[in-house]
Automatic annotation (TrEMBL):
The chain crosses the membrane at residues 301-325, 355-380, 469-490. It is found in: Cell membrane. Belongs to the binding-protein-dependent transport system permease family. HisMQ subfamily. It is a multi-pass membrane protein. The lineage of its organism: Bacteria, Bacillati, Bacillota, Bacilli, Lactobacillales. Pfam families: BPD_transp_1, SBP_bac_3. The keyword Lipoprotein does not apply. Residues 302-490 form the ABC transmembrane type-1 domain. This is Polar amino acid transport system substrate-binding protein. CDD domains: TM_PBP2 (cd06261). Residues 1-29 form the signal peptide. It comes from the Bacteria. Keywords: Amino-acid transport, Cell membrane, Membrane, Signal, Transmembrane, Transmembrane helix, Transport.
Length: 501
């Protein structure tokens, strides 16, 4: 293919990609609370931005009852707990709307530093290490101690650090408890997971012998699950307590938050109002946590999963064709660029790519929502694999196909468009089908950045119902139905192609 025609083709395809992104972004960025609000967290900028947008975006890991968790209300997710009530008070005092962004605990500070959220309220302790990256408010709540959550059948077996020697003990990744196990339980192995509900699931399935938590959280899970028990640990807890985390260089915002905390402490709102409200929601969830009440969660997750899959497939196909043609090109620069891209994408984990697009690229591009970042990351990953499938399909065709097309008066571009690529697609259709099915399942990875796809919704159900296995089983069945249906659809088109041979 001539250089001028190649450049023209690339320009047309890049324009198509721009149209796709422009079409997707307004419909989802406007409705999603998961949007970036700044390119760089400049000194003194956050409070101004909050008041300008009239919106306070608070990051939390809503799997930590009674501090922050979810409940179902009229089929919708509602964030509740002590920390959520504090966030409401802060937003009220600032005169703005509160938006909760639920994500993994170990991603919260990254989101804060990159401007994805305005502050973190998630039972976070202001350690010296964390203070190097972010600023903290005054302490608003001091936990009464650390507890081991264990299986009730092990109540007499695991009672202290010594009894857990040689065992695996779980804790939330990036938490104080994780570091306490490493420093004070030298004879035990620490197992870190991003979500508390996954740690509880690991406990129930025997993957860990105990999970270290704050007292209130451990008791909350024990009270809502008859198979679990909370046991006071002999861990030395030197934590200062929980505080609100904010980006560096925001003294006006810190002062505003401290003013609210002073009011909360003066009126003893945590003990008199916030904790009783959280206990009420937990008690209600314990009585009415039937799976049938959460069908809307799964339905919403399916909708987002399908959207992510469809647009990622479009990006993957378009990008795959571009990269395949570039790799087959006689232009050394285009060939090398394609090879470098394909090898790099295939040589790095997809989850890392998703995090990089959301936090890295999103740091430079304002208003890059989580769902758009997820679609871009999965589409870019898929493009590398589709490119290799298409390239192998083109290489499998007899050389005489191009010569025959050219002898009929077709230009090289038209020969590829009307003769070569259609035949290549037909030959590699089963391989492309496998890639599309894998892509549908891999959409679950975007839950790590807070996209409300099926896996994210499943985690919300786990948190709301205090059940670990059943929501996962339901998610597995739904994924199977979607992949089975997609397989039947792909097989239908494959039969149609064979009939046209």
């Amino acid at each position: 293919m001539k250089k001028g025609k190649m450049i023209k083709a690339l320009s047309i395809i890049l324009a198509m990609l721009a149209i796709i992104f422009a079409t997707v972004t307004p419909s989802y960025a406007a409705s999603s609370s998961q949007t970036s609000t700044t390119k760089k967290v400049a000194k003194g900028s956050v409070l101004k931005r909050i008041k300008a947008k009239k919106e306070l975006v608070v990051g939390t890991s809503a799997d930590y009852p009674p501090l922050e968790f979810t409940t179902s209300e009229n089929g919708s997710t509602k964030y509740v707990g002590v920390d959520i009530e504090l966030a409401k008070e802060i937003a009220k005092d600032l005169g703005v709307k509160l938006v909760i962004k639920n994500m993994s605990f170990d991603s919260l500070l990254v989101a804060l530093e990159t401007g994805k959220i305005d502050m973190v309220i998630s039972g976070m302790t202001p350690t010296p290490e964390r203070k190097e990256s972010v600023d903290f408010s005054k302490i608003y709540y001091k936990p009464s101690g650390e507890y081991f959550l264990i299986n009730k059948k092990d109540a007499t077996k695991y009672t202290n650090i010594k009894s857990l020697k040689g065992k695996t003990v779980g804790a939330q990744t990036g938490s104080i408890q994780y570091n306490e196990i490493k420093s004070q339980m030298k004879g035990s192995t620490v197992k870190g997971l991003g979500k508390i509900n996954n740690l509880v699931l690991a406990l129930q399935s025997g993957k860990v012998s105990a999970v270290l938590m704050e007292e209130l959280i451990a008791k909350a899970y024990a009270q809502n699950n008859n198979n679990l028990k909370a046991v006071k640990s002999d861990i030395k807890d030197d934590a200062a307590g929980n505080a609100v985390a904010m980006a560096k260089g925001q003294p006006d915002l810190v002062a505003a938050v401290n003013k609210t905390i002073n009011k909360v402490k003066k009126n003893n709102l945590i003990d008199n109002k916030f904790l009783p409200q959280a206990a009420k929601y937990m008690k209600t969830a314990n009585k009415t946590n039937k799976m049938s009440q959460y069908w809307s969660y799964f339905l919403k997750g399916v909708g987002y999963t399908i959207v992510i899959t469809v647009f990622s497939v479009l990006i993957g196909i378009i990008l795959g064709i571009i990269l395949a043609l570039m790799r087959l090109s006689r232009n050394k620069l285009l060939h090398c660029l394609a090879v470098a891209y394909i090898e790099f994408i295939r040589g790095t984990p997809q989850m890392v790519q998703i995090l990089f697009v959301y936090f890295g690229v999103g740091y430079l591009i304002s208003n890059l929502s989580a769902i758009i970042a997820g679609i871009i990351a999965i589409g870019l990953n898929s493009g590398a694999y589709v490119a290799e499938d298409i390239r192998s399909g083109i290489d499998s065709l007899p050389k005489g196909q191009v010569e025959a097309a050219r002898s009929l008066g077709l230009s090289q571009a038209k020969a590829y468009r009307y003769v070569i690529i259609p035949q290549a697609i037909r030959n590699i259709w089963p391989a492309l089908g496998n890639e599309f099915i894998t892509l549908l399942k891999d959409s679950s990875l975007v839950s790590v950045i807070g996209v409300s796809e099926l896996m994210y919704q499943t985690q919300l159900v786990q948190t709301s119902t205090y059940r670990g296995v059943l929501p996962l089983f339901i998610a597995m069945v739904i994924y199977f139905i979607m992949t089975f249906s997609l397989t039947r659809l792909l097989n239908y088109f494959e039969r149609r192609m064979k009939k046209n041979d």
